[in-house]
Amino acid sequence: MAEKSKKIMFVAVFVPVLVLVCLLLGFVDAQKITDIKAIEAKEKAAVKEWLAYNNMIKQADTLYQGYFYEEAEKLLQNGKYKERDEVKQKIENCKLAQANLVEYNGTVEHVFFHSLIFYPELAFDGDHMAEGYDLWMTTADEFKKMLPQLRDRGYVLYNIEDLIEQDPNDPNKIVRKAIYLPEGKKPLILSVDDVNYYDYMQKDGFAKRLVLDEDGEVATLVKNPEGIEEINRNGDVVPILDDFVKEYPDFSFRGAKGILALTGYAGALGYRITDVSGDDYKALRTKMDPVVAKLKQTGWIFACHSYTHNSYFKNYTITMQQMQDDATRWRDTIGAVVGQTNIYISPFGVSYKNNDPLYRYLVKQKKFNIFCSVAAKASLIKNDDNIIMSRINLDGFSMKNHKEMLKQRFFNVDDVIDVRRPKT
Question: Partners of 221 in the beta sheet?
Answer without folding.
Answer: 209, 231
